[in-house]
User: Fold Glycoside hydrolase family 65 protein from Christiangramia crocea.
Amino acid sequence: MNKEQEGLREALCTLGNGYFATRGAAEEAEADDVHYPGTYLAGSYNRLKSEVAGKTLENEDLVNWPNWLQLSFRLDGDKNWFRLEEKQVLDYRQELDFSEGILRREMHFKDKKHRETKITSTRLVSMANPHLACIKWEFTPVNWSGPVMMRSALDGSVKNEGVKRYKALSSKHLKIIEQGKTNDIIYLLVQTNQSRIYMAQAARCHVYSGNKKLRTNREILEEEGKISERFSFQASQGKTVTIEKIISVSSSKDRAINEPLNSSLETLRNELDFSALKARHSEAWSRLWKQFDITLKSPGNSQLLLRLHIFHLLQTSSMHTIGRDVGIPARGWHGEAYRGHIFWDELFIFPLLNYRLPDLTHSLLLYRYYRLGAAKKLAEKEGLKGAMFPWQSGSSGREESQVIHLNPKSGKWLPDHTYLQRHVNLAIAYNIWQYYEVTADRNFMKFYGAEMLLEIAHFFASITTWSEFRQRYEIRNVVGPDEFHTAYPGSDEPGINNNAYTNVMTSWLFSHAKKAFELIGTTRQEALKQKLKLDDREFSKWEEISRKLYVPFIKEGIIAQFEGYEQLPEFDWEAYREKYQSIQRLDRILNAEGDSVNCYKASKQADVLMLFYLFSAEELVQLFKDMGYQFNPERIPDNIEYYVSRTSDGSTLSRIVRSWVEARSDRECAWHCFREAIVSDFEDVQGGTTPEGIHMGSMAGTVDILQRCFTGLEVRDNVLRLNPYFPEEITSLGMEINYRGVWLSLEFSGNQCRIKSRDGAASPVKIKFRDQLFEIKGKMIKTISY
Amino acid sequence: MNKEQEGLREALCTLGNGYFATRGAAEEAEADDVHYPGTYLAGSYNRLKSEVAGKTLENEDLVNWPNWLQLSFRLDGDKNWFRLEEKQVLDYRQELDFSEGILRREMHFKDKKHRETKITSTRLVSMANPHLACIKWEFTPVNWSGPVMMRSALDGSVKNEGVKRYKALSSKHLKIIEQGKTNDIIYLLVQTNQSRIYMAQAARCHVYSGNKKLRTNREILEEEGKISERFSFQASQGKTVTIEKIISVSSSKDRAINEPLNSSLETLRNELDFSALKARHSEAWSRLWKQFDITLKSPGNSQLLLRLHIFHLLQTSSMHTIGRDVGIPARGWHGEAYRGHIFWDELFIFPLLNYRLPDLTHSLLLYRYYRLGAAKKLAEKEGLKGAMFPWQSGSSGREESQVIHLNPKSGKWLPDHTYLQRHVNLAIAYNIWQYYEVTADRNFMKFYGAEMLLEIAHFFASITTWSEFRQRYEIRNVVGPDEFHTAYPGSDEPGINNNAYTNVMTSWLFSHAKKAFELIGTTRQEALKQKLKLDDREFSKWEEISRKLYVPFIKEGIIAQFEGYEQLPEFDWEAYREKYQSIQRLDRILNAEGDSVNCYKASKQADVLMLFYLFSAEELVQLFKDMGYQFNPERIPDNIEYYVSRTSDGSTLSRIVRSWVEARSDRECAWHCFREAIVSDFEDVQGGTTPEGIHMGSMAGTVDILQRCFTGLEVRDNVLRLNPYFPEEITSLGMEINYRGVWLSLEFSGNQCRIKSRDGAASPVKIKFRDQLFEIKGKMIKTISY
Assistant:
């Protein structure tokens, strides 16, 4: 990097209304940019591609500067196509406009022949039609005139090389089926190696001077896996030439298509007008923002980061994914980490979507429902009943968890028991119930929800064992959300016993499977009993287990993370914090030292605290009571304190949970954790994991802290409850939520809350603001001072 | 056919509870059987296959006797594999069990060496897992012992040759990608030529003597497009050997798969037990019947035929098609006629499904929604606004209507204007509204329904023109449901003007697009106005058109089918009925004579009567009133009489409409028409169209006559209305319907109606029995005498 480039580095800053993030740095232009922040816009395009592959694919062809969307050029006499390292960058600026979903870049550079050129690039992946992407260059010769050779390509030779530790894995996933040219369109049809999914792309590139389209002679170049066209035009000093490239993408997984290549050609043929395409795209974003925006008054860049998170979430999952057979991968479609596998992250993502696009959460639950068969087979293989959804779910719903993993610290391969995280099933169950609470969609419960809940309950019933000694039921050999503890010290047996989170949630599961069953009516009840081979004896058994599940305690009021946790020695946090820059991945550190994190009271994320995250104090007290335990809610802060001091925060989700659980007891701490959580991808706090893909759960979870935690938003017993308790830093908050089909606008400001319904045809909904119960119906505004 | 075979012919008869249809005839065993009644069970299998191809495929591999599901045999010394014509059939019987979805066949035959053999075949296509099919043979040597050679195959060389007049079209749609053997499984992966869809099949064939699996040496034969295995066993006189073949099918359009071939292999590996597979299948059918069965007491075989129709409907469209991107093709998946194109038939099919499986009609409406883009492009190409769904919709939603068609009577190709049936858009709109009325699913209306209604309304607004002369709006150059009238006599211009059905429905459309718009709330209203580029001026225009659409009348109270209909000469029905055996396809007869049906008052189906079919008298009077016409409902019988005497009933839908419209005025006639309609496929009244595929609209429509017409079932203004008026032949009727999420059991018997809700968690629903309004809530029984 030369001095000039260095000088261009700018801090990230907020502009205007908080919809803009800009980051200008020639540094990014070289490497990091591939993922950050250049990837912001790659999202929805990658989404398409990734669905196609069933794996995350390389996105170089989209974001690899300077070859933006496979568009490049060279000037008269140049041997090479444009390469940044051969130029002197005089000015560089990039701007991501969240409100319109547009990435703009301006660059001013000088080559060795002292020719200065300015390029302004405008790029988007359409939110109006997910099959379209486009890029426009405004190309201006500053101090020269002469011919310019352009190259526009479609590249099928991309590789998955975005995650270094996956180097040993196969990186080339595409094979070329067909490429060619028809009229002014070049096209490429590729197929994934193993899953046989087709992906077709077509591209048209036109050049304009003002409004006049320039005629150019095109030459087609077919290389292995890549088709390009090149053409030249005459550039004149100070005169801007516009290059517009429109790209269409289709896959064999698309709906309403005949064949992917035909489909992408047809789509492109209908799409001649860049500015019309751009206008439709921006409008689609503006409509989305009307529903998804959360306005916040608070110091610093929280507003910007909120929008950054919402923006990324919507790049991965939006109305365009409704009805498609896709889940929410842990890292969105923004990077290759975890290779597109589906974990439990939806537990953190659902609340944001449930209240805005319930058709989408419906669709995501169906994604699980369609894999219920695979989950049943998985349980059956282990000699268990019901359905066992895997920890890492592949495209067919098969278990994709690794059984060994590489420790980059030591270079060694280690056995990996994290697949024993049966709690993923509890997350699915919890989400089913939450979806129902928010939507009251009994039809979903009848057709799908109850069946899944029953199958998951059946599974959990089959993994419980009766302890004569305790006179209680146990769940042995599992791993909790804290992935550090995967076995007892020195034990060959994988897993730990009686993980408190798992056991309490299992008790919750049994009671809610029953509630769901009671909701669905006799006809469906009988059908499900027959289909799932369930009888009243089994239901009684669940009730019995539900009341007698064992929950370990360390001492009165302090829940033990799992049985025997209290016997583990304390960990020397101070020493290790001193010794290592970051101890988030303590497991790897200790392992490299020949030790094991299994041996200490040390957690990656405090899974006991998840209970306080998912349940209100009242609910939790009731849950424990049902299980025959007395739990004093006043001891919650003690539990928090106990575990917070024993947690490395090795997961981006950990801070969200902490912020949440502290919100009612320690507002300052809650705000602090919220801020830590909200910057985690933005500042790549894990030191390198963000370029491997953003953390979807963390991004959505931070928004949800504002949505539900600080506002006290909760639905219980057909009542929407509000109980705001804001950190001092927040002076106002506004959002729209959709509750049972009614759009409500909520505005908190000072000590006032304004609830507005603009929907004249809305059915009445019950709202309880702290202790005040009222009904909202039709168009009305309700203002509460508190 | 020899004498013995001739002697075996039996009439079709009803057995037991009306769930059985048997038809034994050696005649069928030769040829017709390929489609009838052997195809009953092929349905859901074909469905899978047909989805794959985007076209209906040859189903020889499934149903072509004697090669049932590609299973065959030969005895010691035989040169050929089993061929019926070389045997003497001593006994033959086949039985389709609707209740369990199983086709059983028994055959007793003698070969030239006087060896007598009995085979009982049991065959099913799983309703529990749509990826599975299986066949079991019980093979008994009656008077001999010796070796038997079996052959089990998977055949990818099938052709589409089921419709003779398509002979000129390409018939081979599959290319072989891979075939082979793994352990005891043979497999075949094929791909459709044009649409690049993969279809994988895997098969396992085991032989048992009693419970003992016989070890057999297998030999694999790979022919072009076909893989077989053959193996032999020793048969002993009087001892039954069982052969079980289980087949799995997957396609690249499947959900939750990784890759089709893997998927079909994986499915089959998990499926070892024929009887368990069969049990799950039968249970799935029993659950379906609980919701879909209509019990009827009436003379003759109506009960049987009702179940036959319901059975076929569910073979084409069931819970397994929910969420899949498939429409309802006119001929189900039972034959190749119309090559899988989607017409307007869902207008007749929806009511049955709406009241039982609304998730399915939701899904079918989404099938249209996903093709809204294609419909908009189609309108745009013609310089029109909004969305114009095509008359014959192909897989991508493109127009697939022919522009010429072959007259088999004359062998000539004729121009075909039937694509001008814009009323298909009105059918879609009508179904959206009906779905909403039955389910009250406002969420659907918000997300999808209103958008479609608005786009269709926008389209119709753009095809209306203002007539200065009439001071009314007109719709010119269309074709109505009566496809005989596609132009004015001698005119080069295609289409007719002001088709009454189209114009009245268009007025209905405008008012209901408005109603829908009012339902969806301000947020969505604003979003749609932006997205669809609609403003208040456009809405006002619709209102204006709606009130001023022109409807032609022949004379006071008699609606003209279209403008100028009254000027056409009468047709000499008597002469032609005498001259031709059937004049249903009068168009072809007249054309072959050098005349044209365009020149006469003669209809294929009376499209004016469709108005009385879709609307109650009160609604229709209101509709006309809104348009500024006075329509006297007492003239409805005159309209019926006028058109019935001028209709050739060339469509199977025609009789349904007639039965419906006569139900309140002439019960005897209604019953007569109902009977004519209900046998139409069963007796192939059109003389050859049934083997090309059953008529889905007609099958569902006849069931709907019982469901809605005779019971007077109707939903209007949030009230479910009942107003029974049964033909004398019906002494009792029972059915279950799902109204707004509540299962109601309705039983009509004598002059009593019993309404039962067994659903304790059901929300209250309003019911009006004639003039008596009451509420059903939770578990209750209500008995009304009338």
